[in-house]
Design the sequence.
């Protein structure tokens, strides 16, 4: 298949593009919508909101999730908040400012038109969620309250205690549940997408595996939406929920969808450091804590006194010193690297010297314990439960961890991949965050895609298909994909080697973290690219999955996911190797300024790298989508 | 620095399928760090079982941060184990000591059939929400979010109820297998808010009646509140009951009017 990457950016000035698009888009008449079947894979913020809205519009919608209920998607775990350019605080916020902050935060590696649309619809999201009953935090006067997040000098983040993701997801889930109750959506729980089927160049449907009984079945549709989340678990240890994986996006990639910027991954600065080798995941401490917490390390690497006894003069408030105008609210990539350098220089704190302090004593003195408790009480509790220390008395210890993936399926302005009829929304696509995502912008993007973009753009594709037959699941292409999927899962069982999927997952994760994590070098990436294929071969020969493929088998589920992580991992390293510049979360040690900041190369790399599958992940083909900056002047990112 | 617990005796419920007969199986965990979470202890057990070519223990989990509501273990007869307001996944081994015997079972309730080992099917909860646990607000056309001021106390009270993670511990802890705490938490979240008023009584009636279809009835034991990892207060049940009684009056009035 020949790949064309047409971004389909509408004509007009940046302020008019979305309106122009909507005016020109083909429409499906209300009465005709029920003639179309749309499959939505994933029921997180992006999937649930897209499915509910399309069902309201009249489409027949089938939703799939590997969770036991749509309410459990990983979106539920988001803590800190959601951005919107409401300017309720009157502090000078606007659509343009949010647009600008997002492009700049992403280090000028995102597509302007998509980002501007995101900023435009951000205001509708808050209205919509409030109408649905999301109990956002309020001021005493009854108005909505806001806080600030990294990379912004205004307060535009809406929140519901430390559980914003939970409340937004429950809102979207309830709206979806209503449509399920009305019979407009068919919901398939505990069902995993294991393949995507294309027929004559368009996406014709999917193949799924029922996790309870292992049954492999096909589903055909007019269009398919992937809202399947990010791949941060490729690192093994991450803040993502345990089940997050890349399989859905990866299977689409193997069927021809290009995978964009896989090396753009976000390492979040404020997570609880690892304390034990058996650890299965890392816990995020919301970035909102950086509103009032101060990051520091002792100046002396041999410091042994407890934090409170280290005098001011002997502390290094790293972010305030390096980035005086943003201070503790410097963007994530910058803050993470500052922490890493402190630890690498031997000034780490805690029993394993693997963290930096996040100190609230000033805030407690200034605001009082009650106010701090009101703002962060549940986060403090969570910290104490995990780390066994009380942050009111002792500063928290934090360290960066894998958190979010900006890379993902390449999509055009309509959120369609390069396979006609196959869409990607939410964290699963690469669309809006460039090389680094700002805090509180993922929830915004997931809901923007699902509520306000996809339900409209999909009509433009469907309209011409009215009353034309589509291939059913008896088509040989479906049968072939079903057999291949069955063989794949049976294959894992049949290897009968000696090592569990978790063993291999830890090993891949270690390689990717060491060589394709916070700091990357040519040498390291080349090393990873020689180690990964060897380990992958071992996986294929020495994997052990006990039990069978015909019943609930969590080891088998894991095996399939780890297999895809291997292939993705190789592509990440290649992408990182070929991008000979530093930008956002992609930091190549060879490309930095004298002060150690990321050094972009706009001449050569102001483009999206979209990879084409060839059958061998080390031989994928790199395609480019040039990025043009018309509304915003390309500039060096500075948070000084 | 971490300490290690030695010689834990685990008695774990094993059941190969919904209609199969289950039984307890005993395992010894020779050593585990007290920094490990309870589920990480089970991960270690499962790695060992795979090493011995045996079937690992099936259990539900995902976020491991106490927010998704997926984890669901009965530990020594207590839903989510011994620590108050803590979901299974947030429980750490420092709560146990060397030599302890730990009995691990699935949620046991008629409405939550066992799928395998410690994993149950909680989709009856979804049925309750589908019947009315929402505010009907189609996408688009919502008024400006600050148009209706909501007193902070009201927003806070709604949020207290909205924190329910849908884990089902309340049902598992209840001798009658009732889902009143779960249902009432959602009802009070939505019924307290101005946006939720239009459908208040219709919602309550539909949700309560769906709940009654699947779950046992509440006889005020209060075990649910004690087991709830999110400290949902049993007061929400009183609120639900009051609105349910009113819903009957309301609807009758509506019928008489039509
Ligand atoms: C700890 C944490 C805190 C965060 N806090 C914030 C925050 O404060 N603000 C913010 O803006 N962002 C935050 N984020 C990021 C944000 O939560 C996510 O990016 C966002 O929720 C992703 O939503 P989604 O709908 O794209 O995917 P998800 O919510 O991950 O949903 C994916 C869905 O796809 C399904 N799925 C996946 N693969 C398959 C398959 N093969 N078959 C069937 N179903 C499948 C899953 O079952 C699930 O339903 C946070 C992230 C983490 C990890
Ligand atoms: S009320 Fe409490 S115990 Fe019951 S489902 Fe909700 S969080 Fe779990
Ligand atoms: S695993 Fe999510 S609440 Fe326990």
Sequence:
């Amino acid at each position: 298949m020949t790949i064309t990457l047409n971004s389909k950016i509408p004509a007009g000035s940046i302020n008019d593009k979305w309106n122009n698009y909507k005016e020109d888009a083909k429409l499906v008449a209300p009465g005709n919508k029920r003639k179309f079947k749309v499959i939505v894979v994933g029921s997180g913020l992006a999937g649930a909101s897209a499915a509910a809205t399309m069902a309201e519009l009249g489409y027949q919608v089938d939703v799939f999730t590997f969770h036991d209920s749509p309410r459990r998607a990983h979106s539920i775990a988001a803590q800190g908040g959601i951005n919107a350019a409401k300017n309720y605080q009157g502090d000078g916020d606007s659509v343009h400012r949010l647009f600008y902050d997002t492009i700049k935060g992403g280090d000028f590696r995102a597509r302007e038109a998509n980002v501007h649309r995101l900023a435009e619809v951000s205001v509708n999201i808050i209205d919509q969620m409030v109408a649905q009953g999301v109990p956002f935090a309020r001021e005493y006067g009854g108005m909505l309250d806001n806080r600030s997040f990294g990379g912004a000098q205004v307060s535009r983040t809406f929140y519901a205690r430390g559980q914003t993701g939970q409340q937004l997801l429950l809102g979207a889930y309830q709206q979806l549940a209503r449509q399920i109750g009305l019979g407009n959506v068919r919901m398939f729980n505990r069902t995993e997408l294991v393949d995507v089927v294309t027929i004559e160049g368009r996406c014709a449907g999917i193949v799924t595996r029922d996790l309870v009984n292992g049954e492999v079945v096909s589903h055909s549709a007019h269009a398919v939406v992937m809202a399947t989340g990010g791949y941060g678990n490729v690192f093994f240890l991450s803040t993502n929920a345990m089940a997050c994986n890349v399989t859905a996006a990866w299977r689409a990639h193997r069927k021809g969808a290009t995978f964009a910027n896989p090396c753009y991954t976000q390492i979040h600065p404020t997570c609880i450091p690892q304390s034990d080798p058996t650890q299965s995941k890392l816990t995020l401490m919301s970035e909102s804590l950086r509103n009032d917490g101060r990051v520091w390390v002792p100046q002396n690497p041999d410091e042994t006194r407890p934090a409170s006894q280290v005098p001011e003069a002997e502390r290094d408030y790293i972010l305030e010193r390096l980035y005086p105008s943003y201070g503790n609210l410097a963007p994530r990539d910058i803050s993470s690297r500052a922490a890493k350098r402190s630890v690498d220089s031997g000034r780490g704190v805690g029993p394993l010297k693997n963290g930096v302090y996040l100190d609230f004593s000033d805030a407690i003195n200034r605001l009082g314990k009650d106010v701090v408790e009101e703002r962060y009480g549940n986060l403090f509790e969570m910290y104490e439960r995990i780390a066994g220390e009380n942050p009111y008395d002792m500063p928290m210890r934090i360290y960066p961890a894998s958190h979010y993936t900006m890379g993902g399926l390449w999509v055009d302005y309509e959120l369609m991949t390069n396979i006609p009829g196959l869409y990607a929304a939410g964290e699963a696509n690469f669309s809006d965050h460039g090389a680094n995502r700002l805090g509180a912008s993922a929830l915004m993007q997931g809901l923007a895609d699902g509520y306000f973009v996809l339900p409209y753009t999909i009509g433009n594709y469907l309209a011409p298909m009215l009353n034309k037959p589509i291939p059913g699941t008896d088509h040989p292409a479906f049968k072939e994909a079903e057999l291949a999927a069955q063989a794949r899962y049976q294959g894992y069982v049949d290897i009968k080697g000696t090592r569990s999927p978790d063993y291999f997952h830890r090993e891949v994760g270690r390689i990717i973290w060491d060589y394709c994590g916070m700091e990357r070098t040519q040498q390291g990436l080349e090393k990873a690219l020689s180690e990964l294929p060897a380990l992958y071969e071992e996986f294929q020969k020495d994997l052990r999955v006990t039990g069978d493929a015909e019943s609930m088998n969590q080891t088998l589920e894991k095996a399939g996911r780890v297999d895809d992580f291997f292939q993705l991992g190789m592509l990440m390293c290649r992408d990182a190797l070929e991008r000979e510049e530093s930008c956002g979360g992609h930091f190549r040690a060879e490309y930095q300024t004298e002060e150690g900041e990321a050094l972009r190369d706009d001449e050569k790399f102001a483009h999206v790298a979209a990879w084409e599958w060839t059958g061998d992940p080390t031989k994928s083909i790199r395609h480019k989508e040039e990025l043009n900056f018309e509304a915003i002047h390309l500039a060096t990112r500075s948070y000084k | 620095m971490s300490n290690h617990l030695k010689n834990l005796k685990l008695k774990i419920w094993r059941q190969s399928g919904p209609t199969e007969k289950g039984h307890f199986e005993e395992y010894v965990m020779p050593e585990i760090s007290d920094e490990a979470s309870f589920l990480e202890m089970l991960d270690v057990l499962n790695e060992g079982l795979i090493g011995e070519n045996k079937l690992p223990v099936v259990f539900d989990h995902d976020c491991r941060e106490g927010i998704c509501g997926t984890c669901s273990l009965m530990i020594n007869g207590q839903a989510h184990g011994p620590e108050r307001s803590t979901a299974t996944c947030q429980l750490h081994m420092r709560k146990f000591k060397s030599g302890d015997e730990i009995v691990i079972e699935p949620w046991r309730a008629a409405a939550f059939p066992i799928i395998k080992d410690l994993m149950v099917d909680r989709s009856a909860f979804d049925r309750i929400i589908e019947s009315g646990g929402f505010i009907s607000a189609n996408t688009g056309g919502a008024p400006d979010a600050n148009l209706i001021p909501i007193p902070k106390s009201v927003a806070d009270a709604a949020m207290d109820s909205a924190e329910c993670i849908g884990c089902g511990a309340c049902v598992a802890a209840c001798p009658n297998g009732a889902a009143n705490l779960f249902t009432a938490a959602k009802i009070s979240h939505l019924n307290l808010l101005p946006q939720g008023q239009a459908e208040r009584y219709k919602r309550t009636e539909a949700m309560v009646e769906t709940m009654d279809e699947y779950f046992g009835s509440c006889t005020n034991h209060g075990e649910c509140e004690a087991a709830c990892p999110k400290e949902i207060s049993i007061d929400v049940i009183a609120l639900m009951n009051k609105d349910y009684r009113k819903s009957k009056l309301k609807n009758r009035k509506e019928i008489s009017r039509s």
Remarks:
- Helices of chain B lie at 38-51, 123-132, 152-162, 169-173, 180-192, 200-214, 223-227, 235-257.
- Chain B has a mean pLDDT of 95.
- Residues B 164-170, 181-182, 185, 227-230, 232 surround iron/sulfur cluster (ligand 2) (CB under 6 Å).
